[in-house]
Specification:
Blueprint (H helix, E strand, L loop, with lengths): L6 E3 L3 H8 L1 H13 L4 H8 L3 H13 L3 E3 L11 E3 L3 E3 L10 H26 L19 H17 L70 E2 L5
Parallel strand pairs: 1-4, 4-5
Antiparallel strand pairs: 2-3
Length: 237
């Protein structure tokens, strides 16, 4: 059984700005995908100099987003890993005037990077895993409390498939997952996509392997362009 993941609330503007830096997002994503690394290995992977990488690591460590990986270093080497936690931002209605543009810009960059990475995956992934790219576009009719419950159930499902390396079944690999939901604009309510017969999920025909809704923690190819996992913008609102 997977361990219960710690929830880290990010209500401090300084911590949010530290997390939102694009290079630090790349560092966190690399650590999440490939495991512990030194500033030198991160610099090579992300095309940075070691001084810049060390500075970004110190800032991430200061706010609790990374931590030293025990039992990994040799000599004076410092190995870092992403601190295991589900990051939660304040709900949009609770974000200050200074915080909201930082969150919005971080989300904009994250979604753009995710789309680019998805397109790269479609180009490069071959063999049986070429079928491991299900997606779904649809709508649900819920109250706000029900949407929050739906969201927490999704997070619980994702965490169920986060496993240690020694617990992975044969053939498991790392799969990136993303979740996005938002209220339909008022002028679209008359044309509810739920009534459209074309509103179906491509996942319905996908093979039953670990796929976009079911991540398995394992080593995979270099996907350093992605943004960090396990980040949620508070409760859905």
């Amino acid at each position: 059984m997977p361990k219960q993941r710690r929830i880290k609330e990010i209500g401090d503007l300084g911590a949010l700005k530290a997390l939102a830096h694009p290079r630090r997002q790349q560092i966190l994503e690399h650590l999440a995908l490939h495991g512990p690394a030194t500033s030198a290995t991160l610099a090579r992977a992300l095309d940075l100099n070691t001084g810049a990488t060390s500075y970004h690591l110190r800032e991430l460590d200061r706010h609790g987003f990374v931590e030293e990986a025990e039992g990994t270093g040799r000599g004076r080497e410092r190995w870092w890993r992403a601190a295991p936690a589900d990051l939660r931002f304040p709900q949009r209605s609770e974000q200050s005037d200074e915080m909201r543009p930082v969150v919005d810009e971080m989300n904009r960059l994250a979604f753009a990077a995710d789309l680019a990475l998805f397109e790269r995956s479609q180009r490069e992934i071959e063999g049986v895993w070429a079928d491991g790219q299900p997606y779904s576009r649809g709508s649900i009719q819920v109250t706000l409390p029900e949407l929050r419950e739906f969201f927490e159930e999704y997070i619980a499902l994702v965490n169920r498939y986060k496993r240690a390396d020694d617990e992975l079944p044969e053939g498991a690999r790392n799969v990136l997952t993303r979740f996005l939901a938002f209220p339909a604009p008022a002028d679209d309510m008359a044309n509810d996509p739920a009534d459209d017969p074309a509103d179906v999920s491509a996942a319905e025909s996908a093979v039953h392997q670990p796929a976009d809704g079911l991540p398995a923690e394992a080593k995979t190819e270099d996907l350093t362009e992605a943004t960090t996992d396990d980040t949620t913008n508070g409760d859905p609102s």
